[in-house]
# Entry
Amino acid sequence: MSSENIKRLFSYRSIDDEEYELQNIDNGIAYFGKISNFNDPVEGMIRKQKLIHGFSPFNDTDVIRAANILYQNVKSNWIIPSWFADGMREALSRSSPWEVFTELNNLIDKVDEYKNTLRVLCTTPTEMHSLMWAHYADSHRGICIEYEVDFSSLPKGLASVPVQYTNELKSYLASSFILSPEDLLSRLLFTKSSEWSYESEWRFVLHNGDESLDLDERFRMVSVTAGYKCSKDTELRALCDKKGLEFYKVRDQGIYGLVRV
# Structure
């Protein structure tokens, strides 16, 4: 395991009344959330605008020509699922532009459906960021989990990309998926407004239909930090001892402010 492929990243989490996060730690899993539950409601937004023969955002001939070129070069991967190539094949086998557009619209209907099957774990390189504690760990009532990730050997079904930040973030036309599917899904999944750039986020995406990842040496939990206002210190310390994890607590160190000790 080469050290340059190893990165330690942190995920800030709240603790609800059912203590699901503590259960996840005990069970050795990382929970991945739905895109629809993200803080920013604009992120990942798709505006449904279907292709209409003779009246669409793109010229009919250009759409069909682009679809033909794309179909010749498309290769299924985690971000371009196999149903895309199948749908393109079905659409381009039709004899009239109206029928082609009907089948292409069937693909457009699947864009949101596919996006919402993906599950995401958001991480950051720092464990002591006051805004992150406030926004994602219930104002220090929650925890911060440290993971060690070997990027040279990610578990099957898991992908990771650093988030890109831009001032030009906007919602995207579902119809543009036909012309540039990989680019559209990449922008939807890995682009955020510059207002969130303080997060320096690394985003992990589960694309195999699961909502959690079984942790192992390729993606392992290293430590748990209890927030300054967290009331579960005793349970967390015992749980970390049981699982062989480091336990830390955020404390007020006077002139030094809040410190992880």
